[in-house]
Write a structure and sequence with these properties.
Length: about 140
């Protein structure tokens, strides 16, 4: 009688283990994807800041389209999971603002919706122009208006 009881417990444990291991694998995969997504999002923000800083330091003049194409190419080469869809650069008198729309390249629809939603995500980065002659010229332009 005891051997029959042990066999039932082992079979029950085996069936439960199949479900637990299956769920555990999916949870671990989601955590790994979330970690890589977090890395890519942080890297995208810091790359945008660095690219804008190098583009406008010491009074360099870059057009918005040059900055957009250069930034998009640079980001798509260095990111793991995310891809920049659209980058828009707007120059103001004393600052540069970049809006980056991106999506995650994951084939599992559940994880893609979990990380970025159906339409993707958007981040905004701004950088102040810290060049003294530019401040002086802009202040004179403002006074004339």
């Amino acid at each position: 009688m005891e051997s029959i009881w042990l066999n039932c417990r082992n079979a029950s444990f085996t069936v439960e283990a199949v479900f637990v291991i299956n769920i555990t694998i999916w949870v671990l995969a989601a955590v790994c994807y979330a970690a890589v997504y977090s890395h890519d999002r942080t890297a995208m923000y810091s790359m945008a800041e660095q690219f804008m800083e190098q583009s406008v330091e010491n009074g360099k003049k870059f057009t918005e389209s040059e900055m957009e194409t250069g930034m998009e190419q640079y980001m798509n080469e260095h990111l793991f999971l995310c891809r920049a869809d659209r980058i828009t650069v707007k120059r103001a008198l004393l600052s540069v603002r970049t809006d980056i729309s991106f999506h995650v390249e994951v084939r599992v629809p559940f994880l893609q919706k979990l990380l970025t939603g159906e339409k993707g995500r958007k981040i905004s980065v701004s950088h102040e122009v810290l060049f003294a002659p530019e401040y002086l010229w802009n202040s004179r332009e403002i006074k004339r208006e």
